[in-house]
Write a structure and sequence with these properties.
With 295 residues, the protein is mostly helical. The protein is built from 11 helices and 4 strands, in the order E-E-H-H-H-H-E-E-H-H-H-H-H-H-H. The strands form 2 sheets. It has a two-stranded antiparallel ribbon with strand order 1-2. Strands 3-4 form a two-stranded antiparallel sheet. Helix 5 crosses helix 6 and helix 9 crosses helix 10. The chain is globular and about 60 Å long. The mean pLDDT is 89.
Length: 295
C-alpha cells in the first residue's frame, strides 16, 4: 500500500525514527529549558553532558563490568554531580552578569571535554551493546518495530512526564518556581536558593546524561555526538519558549515527527526544516509557542 507514492512500510519506518529522535530532543530540551528558566544561563555544554553520559555508560561497562541497567541509573547521577561541581566552582561567579559570559564559559567546557575524549578515544566512535532483553524486533504487519527503539520512546516520555510532575505538582517544584520568580523573597522564607540552583543545574545535565545512555546503543559513542544535536536542541527550546517545561516536551516530540515525515518526502530538506519552523515561530510569536510574553 502506498501513500502519495511512498510505501507505507517506508513511511512508518521514518515516522518511528522521527519519534525516537523526538524523544531525544524532548529530554535534552527539557533539561536545557529547566537550566535556563532558573539560572538564566544558555548552557552550551548541554551536548557535552549528553556525550559524557554515553561515555560513562561505556566506560563503566568496559572497566567495571556494569550492565546497561546499572549505567542507566548511575550515569545520570555521576554526570549530575560533575555538573553541580561545575556550577558551584565556575558558573556561580557569573550570575547577574551579561549572559554572554555564561555562554562562553559553557562553550569552553565543551572544547575541554570533547578535546579530552577525542585524545583518549579517538573520533571514530565506540560501539555499545544493546541490552539482551531489548534486542530483536516486533512485526506489526505494516512495519518492523525494533524493541530497543520502542523502549527509548517509553523511557524518554516517562522521564519527561515525571520531571513535569515534580516541577508542577510537588513542594520542591513550588520552591523552584518561586526561586525563579523571586529569589530574594524565597530566601527570606528560609529556602536555600543557592543550593536549589545547584541541584537544578545538576538535574538538568542529569537529564542530558540520561538521554546519552539511551542513545549509546543506537549511535556509536564518540566525542562529537552531542555537538551534532545541541544546535537542534537550542532551536527546539526557542520554538517551545525559553524556560517552558511543556514547550520543551511537546515541541521536541513534534519536531522529531516533522523531521521524520520530511525525510520521507524530501530527505534533503530534513536537516533544515527545524530551523525554518524556528524562523516562522519567531516571526509570528517571538516568545515561542508556549512562552510567556513579557508585559
Amino acid at each position: 500500500m502506498d501513500i502519495f507514492g511512498v510505501p507505507i512500510q517506508a513511511m512508518m519506518g521514518q515516522l518511528m525514527l522521527g519519534i525516537v529522535n523526538g524523544s531525544f530532543y524532548a529530554v535534552l530540551s527539557l533539561g536545557l529549558a529547566i537550566i535556563f528558566g532558573v539560572l538564566k544561563i544558555v548552557n552550551f555544554a548541554h551536548g557535552a553532558f549528553f556525550m559524557l553520559g554515553a561515555f560513562v555508560a561505556f566506560l563503566s561497562g568496559r572497566y567495571l563490568g556494569l550492565d546497561y541497567w546499572a549505567a542507566l541509573f548511575l550515569a545520570p547521577l555521576i554526570v549530575a554531580c560533575i555538573g553541580m561541581a561545575f556550577e558551584y566552582l565556575f558558573l556561580r561567579r557569573l550570575y547577574g552578569l551579561d549572559p554572554i559570559y555564561g555562554l562562553l564559559l559553557t562553550f569552553s567546557l565543551v572544547l575541554v571535554l570533547e578535546g579530552g575524549f577525542r585524545v583518549a578515544f579517538g573520533s571514530s566512535g565506540q560501539p555499545y551493546p544493546t541490552p539482551e532483553a531489548l534486542r530483536g524486533t516486533i512485526n506489526l504487519g505494516f512495519m518492523i518495530l525494533p524493541i530497543y527503539r520502542a523502549f527509548v520512546v517509553v523511557a524518554a516520555v516517562t522521564m519527561c512526564l515525571a520531571t513535569w510532575y515534580m516541577i508542577e505538582r510537588t513542594r520542591l517544584g513550588s520552591s523552584l518556581r518561586a526561586a525563579t520568580e523571586r529569589p530574594d523573597l524565597t530566601q527570606a522564607f528560609g529556602i536555600n536558593v543557592p543550593l536549589l540552583v545547584t541541584l537544578t543545574y545538576g538535574g538538568g545535565v542529569g537529564l542530558a546524561a540520561f538521554a546519552g545512555v539511551l542513545a549509546a546503543p543506537i549511535f556509536h559513542v564518540n566525542p562529537s555526538m552531542g555537538s551534532n544535536l545541541v544546535i537542534i536542541i537550542f532551536a527546539v527550546v526557542v520554538i517551545g519558549g525559553l524556560g517552558s517545561i511543556v514547550g520543551a516536551i511537546v515541541t521536541g516530540l513534534a519536531l522529531g515527527i516533522v523531521e521524520g515525515f520530511t525525510r520521507v518526502f524530501y530527505s534533503e530538506f530534513s536537516s533544515t526544516v527545524v530551523f525554518l519552523v524556528m524562523v516562522a515561530v519567531l516571526l509570528l510569536r517571538p516568545a515561542g509557542l508556549f512562552g510567556r510574553t513579557e508585559g
